Amino acid sequence: MSDKYRILIVDDSTDDIHFVLENLKQDYAVLVATSGEKALEMADKEPRPDVILMDVEMPGMNGYETCRLIKNTPETSDIDVIFVSAHDSTDEKLAGYDAGGSDYLIKPVQTSELLQKVKLAIKDKQARSAVEADKAMAMETAMTAISSAGEQGVVVNFMKNSFSVTSIEELAKLVVEATSNYGLESSVQLRTAAGSVNASSNEPIPPLELELLSKLKDVGRLKESGARFIGNFGGVTQLIKNMPEDEGKRGRLRDHLALLLEGAEARLHALELQQQLAQVVADSNQTLQDIEAMQKQQKQTSMQIMDDVMEQLEESFMSYGLTEDQESLLIKVVKDGVDKSLTNFEQGMVIDEKMRDIIHSLEQFSQA
Amino acid sequence: MKKKEINLDGIPALPGIDMLDAMQRLNGDWELYKTVFRSFHQRHASTATTIEAHIRQCELESAARLAHNLKGTSGNLAATGLFCQAGKLESACLEGDSDHALSMLEGLQRHLDGVMSGIELLGDDAPASSTETKALDRNALSQLLDQLQGCIETDLGDAQVCLKKIWLELQETSYAAKFKNIEASMNRFDTEETIVNISLLKADLL
Description:
The structure holds 2 protein chains of 2 kinds. Chain A is an alpha/beta fold. Chain A has helices at about 15-25, 35-45, 65-70, 90-100, 110-160, 170-180, 205-215, 245-320, 325-365; strands spanning about 5-10, 30-35, 50-55, 80-85, 105, 185-190, 195-200, 220-225, 230-235, 235-240. In chain A, strands 2-1-3-4-5 form a 5-stranded parallel β-sheet, sandwiched between helices. Chain A has a 5-stranded antiparallel β-sheet with strand order 7-6-10-9-8, sandwiched between helices. Chain A is rod-shaped, with a radius of gyration of 47 Å. The two termini of chain A are about 75 Å apart. Chain B folds into 2 domains: about 20-120, Four Helix Bundle (Hemerythrin (Met), subunit A) (Up-down Bundle); about 140-205, no CATH class. By secondary structure, chain B is mostly helical. The longest helix of chain B is centred in the middle third of the chain and has 25 residues, at about 100-120. Chain B is elongated. The two termini of chain B are about 40 Å apart. Chains A and B meet through helix 1, strand 2 and helix 5 of A and helix 2, helix 4, helix 5 and helix 8 of B.
């Protein structure tokens, strides 16, 4: 295939065609149509002409009609049409302009003028193509940005949703779900001191996959091989089996997945702390309840001891032959001691209340 | 493109034609010029008579169209006098002035006759009938014909180069007449007929 620019001459006069052809054939690939109908057929056929030199007066479809049809067809609308006619009035030129022509040459055409006009039309076409290419590139960039924004949205949504999960199981499922938004099938393992939690887009998780997840935690932060991707962030390991081939998309997804796993790791750490704190609170609560029960028991025992002491004291008065005042004084001394002891107990209960307040606050904090 | 120096040595002066201008328009290709001239002779031998008939039948639009075509082609041929006369006649027809148009017919006929007489002096370039006397590389010719067929619809300049190479092989052989058919259909820019003629020659050759 010639890489020359292509010029289509449309004229019913073969004699006239020769004159134009002779002047263009050295620099351009020249084609000829001897009617408007044939011109339409040739303009629509690949490789399409870059410029058409169109006669106006032709039997059947004239040059203006032909040009209008070419310009109204999306596939051929970009072809420059230069009218070549023996008509030299302004009205005719306006008609050519209205039909979509870009220039007008008067027969007999001067060689230099013909070459100049064709060259100009080619130059314009090149400029238009360059603009089109720029536009296409700008559009592609915009589409990539929009698409990337959509992809980043998956990470943002994951982060947002991860704050409302209350268990590591939920978090594992959320990682798999977010990854599936990229069209990726994955398995994930979240490890804590208490053990590991697994989730997969392919439930139930095949044993081999589980085994791999446990083993792959040591292969490095990000590792890729073919369609496989392994990500390790702290206690989070992810295995993906169907990474895309397109290098651009693959690169973007790699970045998004790294962010997602980093977020999952942070959230896992927070959840682990939260769970440990909840355990501490529960343990403290239990201890406090035990102390309270022991205190109650202790109080009751003390009260009983005091009552027994009082009873034995009153019984002993009979044998000592004390006066009524002496008995009253002794009873008052013992009662004051019992009262002080009870007050001391009551103060211990206030400390319990304070401890309970602290545990309640911790409880609320651990649930936050 | 740089304007080619035109050498008019050996080229006859033809009545009504600015030969230098004409030859410049066709890059000094005298053979092509003769072809175009003969085609003009065929197409316009009776144009003046037809225009007159249209004017007399008050079909001034048709008369104007014919005068317009004549003007265009004669301009390209550098037939300056005929070009001017055809232009005036076209204007008269477009203005609807049939009397004025009729009065100009005589002048048009005179200019046309002058050009035609010059063309008739050129004679015919009919190929000499001959029997095949030289050895032909039929495979190479077949390839050239295939190449020609490929170029017909993509690049007529290349097609003409190819045609010349074929002629160098086939002139003064019994295939010259069939070659001339290809050349004639190419000169009429009749792609379909050219392809048929190429096939016929190929069938004969192989």
